[in-house]
Amino acid sequence: xxxxxxxxxxxxxxxxxxxxxxxxxxxxxxxxxxxxxxxxxxxxxxxxxxxxxxxxxxxxxxxxxxxxxxxxxxxxxxxxxxxxxxxxxxxxxxxxxxxxxxxxxxxxxxxxxxxxxxxxxxxxxxxxxxxxxxxxxxxxxxxxxxxxxxxxxxxxxxxxxxxxxxxxxxxxxxxxxxxxxxxxxxxxxxxxxxxxxxxxxxxxxxxxxxxxxxxxxxxxxxxxxxxxxxxxxxxx
Length: 236
Fold this sequence. Notes:
Layout: E1 6-10, H1 15-26, E2 30-35, E3 45-48, H2 54-68, E4 73-76, H3 91-119, E5 122-127, H4 131-134, H5 140-160, E6 165-172, H6 178-181, H7 185-194, H8 203-213, E7 225-228
Helix pairs in contact: 1-8, 2-3, 3-5
């Protein structure tokens, strides 16, 4: 990595977001994380924000830019699941996941890219999921929200690619986090049987890919979907 950049990561208080924040901090970047509660890793600036609340995002981004400088790298990671089969899924189950995982990403991207456009430099990383393109029973809301990020990244690339800004989707598979810990032993065994690598990933394995995609080494990669899934989603 050539120089220290200002990084904003949404949902940086646990799981993959926390690991991504740790990775950028240890690489010497100036890192801010949005949290609804808790805090990010040591060395990061935690700002209270909710991706559903536009005013809270305006305030958080103003605070980050005042404290650290103009945002140069955005990792849109905040997301939720409300898994259930289509016939049981309420309108609210669908709408809440879309509002956080898709509309929330739009709200953050729109605000954080203002500085990038002025500087003619930026990295936008959208944290998608293998199920965005692979599909998953019980996750119509979640997979729809994550597949939509591909269109967003590609349209962003076409709009802003000439200004030194890249936009990519990182698509993790099954990762050892609180979410996978909630799966039953039978579910875990079933998922593992489908992953060619034969194991779940660590959050750090996702974080290292994000760090590389945000680096100058990856300046000619944009509009890509980069899987970190042990081969689970091959061809999707």
